[in-house]
Specification:
Elements (H helix, E strand, L loop, with lengths): L4 H10 L1 H11 L1 H31 L16 E5 L8 H4 L10 E5 H11 L12
Antiparallel strand pairs: 1-2
Helix pairs in contact: 1-2, 2-3
C-alpha cells in the first residue's frame, strides 16, 4: 500500500503512531537499524550506570564530607588533582580508577567545594553577608 505525500502529511499530523507504523512497514531495513541503534544506546547507558554505581560503592557509597547517601544520582566523583574527567558521564566511562586520587561528594558539597576553590567565600552573589 503506497501513500502519497499528502496522505503521509495528513496521517502524521493526525495519527503519529499510525504514521510510524506505516513507515516501519515500508522501510523495514531503516526501522531495524533505528531499533538496533536504540538498543545499543540503552545497553550503553545501563553499562555506564552500573560502572558509576561500582565506583560509588568502592568509595563508600556516601558523601565523604556530610554523609549524604539517599540518592546515588546526586553523588558526584571529584578528582583531587582537578582534572576535567570528574564529570559523572566521563568518569563513569573510566573502568580502572586510582581511588586515592578521588573523593565522593554529594551535589551540594561538590558545588560548595568548587565555589570556594574559585576564590569565592561565604554567601553567593545577591545574598546578604
Amino acid at each position: 500500500m503506497k501513500f502519497y505525500k499528502h496522505s503521509y502529511h495528513t496521517l502524521r499530523t493526525t495519527d503519529t503512531a499510525g504514521y510510524y507504523r506505516l513507515w516501519r512497514a515500508e522501510n523495514p531495513e531503516k526501522a531495524k537499524a533505528n531499533r538496533d541503534k536504540f538498543n545499543a544506546s540503552a545497553k550503553f547507558s545501563q553499562w555506564r550506570l552500573n560502572n558509576k554505581l561500582r565506583h560509588i560503592k568502592a568509595l563508600g557509597g556516601k558523601c565523604q564530607k556530610c554523609g549524604y547517601d539517599k540518592c546515588t544520582a546526586s553523588l558526584d566523583i571529584h578528582e583531587l588533582n582537578g582534572k576535567v574527567i570528574s564529570k559523572n558521564t566521563a568518569f563513569s566511562l573510566t573502568p580502572n580508577v586510582d581511588y586515592s586520587k578521588v573523593i565522593l561528594l554529594c551535589a551540594n558539597c561538590h558545588r560548595e567545594l568548587h565555589y570556594e576553590k574559585n576564590g569565592r567565600k561565604g554567601k553567593a552573589r545577591g545574598e546578604e553577608p
